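Handout for the seminar on molecular recognition.
Each group receives one record of this type.
Step one: identify the two inputs.
Step two: read the structure output and locate the region that could contact adenosine-2'-5'-diphosphate.
Step three: write two sentences on what you found, then compare them with the reference statements printed after the record.
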Amino acid sequence: GSCLESVKIAIDAGYRHIDGAFVYYNEHEVGQAIREKIAEGRIKREDIFYCGKLWNTCHPPELVRPTLEKTLKILQLDYVDLYIIELPMAFKPGDAIYPKDENGKIIYHETDLCATWEAMEACKDAGLAKSIGVSNFNRRQLEMILNKPGLKYKPVSNQVECHPYFTQPKLLEFCRQHDIVIVGYSPLGTSRDETWVNVSSPPLLKDPVLNAIGKKYNKTAAQVALRFSIQRGVVVIPKSFNPQRIKENFQIFDFSLTEKEMKEIEALNKNVRYVELLM
Ligand code: A2P
């Protein structure tokens, strides 16, 4: 229920881009929130930009369209605006999201990312996804797709971890050259949940530079971190369940950082990920 409420608050606050996934197990709530806001007359479907994700157990090409159709059924929407391959590695298909052997090791699955991509292209052609992209892809994996013989559509975006402590300068430049938008996840430095976050890296929002710059503009460190990303052309997808912070994270369009401040924040880069994706 908290997701339903949060999405409705976010739409009221002005958010239009919603980053979802089947594996977040809340697509039914996101879909309901969107439909309720459409029914209220606050938005039209075409105002919303919903991103869905193809999970690792669904990489075999014949599974791609049925998986997206399942997501659409859960959302009760006719199409997603963006459908992305969530991770470049495949797991054994089946009901288990993290299929494991008797020793607790993940069971991987051999698939061809290019074949998965062709199935993604077919979803776009069928009108089930307006655009298609990838996530957690490095340069080599992007090049595999970009250099695929007979490529019909290139990925429009690559969603990766990106924030002042992990600025991704090389990947950002490569993606810029190829017209691929970087969507930065964990733009606030994550929830620091030890089950999936490397908490040995210090909390981003406690950073003295971000806080000092924030003070100057009467903004919080979170707002400065988000502003920094959008100002360098990185899309941000901050997550919050808190109404106050949902609104706060949207108040970033009424100030801008100077070139000097951008450089100062860029210099905070530690090249350390919070989300190590050790599997
Ligand atoms: P909460 O949901 O209680 O607001 P990220 O977007 O980098 O994944 O970070 C998400 C985490 O940051 C969540 O734990 C969220 O907690 C917290 N958060 C979101 N917005 C803010 C904010 N403006 N100030 C401080 N913490 C925030």
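Reference statements: The chain has a mean pLDDT of 97. Residues 186-191, 205, 220, 222, 238-242, 245, 248-249 surround adenosine-2'-5'-diphosphate (CB under 6 Å).
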